[in-house]
C-alpha cells in the first residue's frame, strides 16, 4: 500500500503553529525542535526536514507572524477614514489587545531577544523595523505633521511602551487604548 502524499506546505504551517504556541506559552527557551516535535506528534527528523535549526524554525515563525500582522494592519489602515485613524489602526494591531496579538507579541519579543546575539535574525528584525518606521513616517508626512520621522519613532516607542502594561497585567486594554488616543490627539 502506498502512503498518502504529504502536503509539505500544510505540514510546515502546522509545525509553525505548534512553535508559536510553544513560544507563547513557555518562551523561546522551551521552544526546541524536540518540544515542537513532541507537541506536534511527529518525529524530530520530521521537524528537522522543514527546519534544520532552531534559528531556522524561529525565523520562519517570525516571518509568518510578521506577515499576518502586516496584512491585518494594512487591512485596518485601509479601512480608516483619515490618516490619524490609519495610524491608530496600525498601532492598535501592534498592541496585545487579544490572545492572537498577545501570542504574536510574545513571539516577536522572543525573536528580538535571540536577534541580539544572532546577526542573521538581527538583520531580519532591522529590515522589518525600518519598513514599519518608513510607513508610519510617510503617513505622518501625508498628514502634514511636523518632523514626521521623529514622530514615527515616537509612535513606535509609545506603542512598545503601551504593550508592557498588557503583557504584565498592570493595565487594562481600555486604559492602554485611552493612552494611545491621548498621544494621537496631541500629535494631531
Description:
By secondary structure, the protein is mainly α. It has one domain (8-187): Tetracycline Repressor, domain 2. It is built from nine helices and no strands. The chain is elongated. The model has no long low-confidence stretch (mean pLDDT 92).
| Beta-strand percent range | under 5%
Helical coverage, percent range: over 70%
CATH third-level topology? Tetracycline Repressor, domain 2
Shape: elongated
Specify the CATH homologous superfamily: Tetracycline Repressor, domain 2
Q: Quickly give the CATH architecture.
A: Orthogonal Bundle
Number of helices: 9
CATH class: Mainly Alpha
Could you say how many structural domains there are in total?
A: 1
Rg over CA atoms: 19 Å
Mean pLDDT: 92
Structure summary, number of beta strands: 0
Low-confidence stretches: none
Secondary-structure class: mainly alpha
Distance between the termini: 68 Å
Give me the strand/helix succession.
HHHHHHHHH
Major sheet attributes? none
Topology diagram in text:
Blueprint (H helix, E strand, L loop, with lengths): L7 H19 L6 H8 L3 H7 L3 H26 L3 H12 L4 H17 L3 H24 L5 H21 L4 H15 L1
Helix pairs in contact: 1-2, 1-4, 1-6, 2-3, 4-5, 4-6, 5-7, 5-9, 6-7, 7-8, 8-9
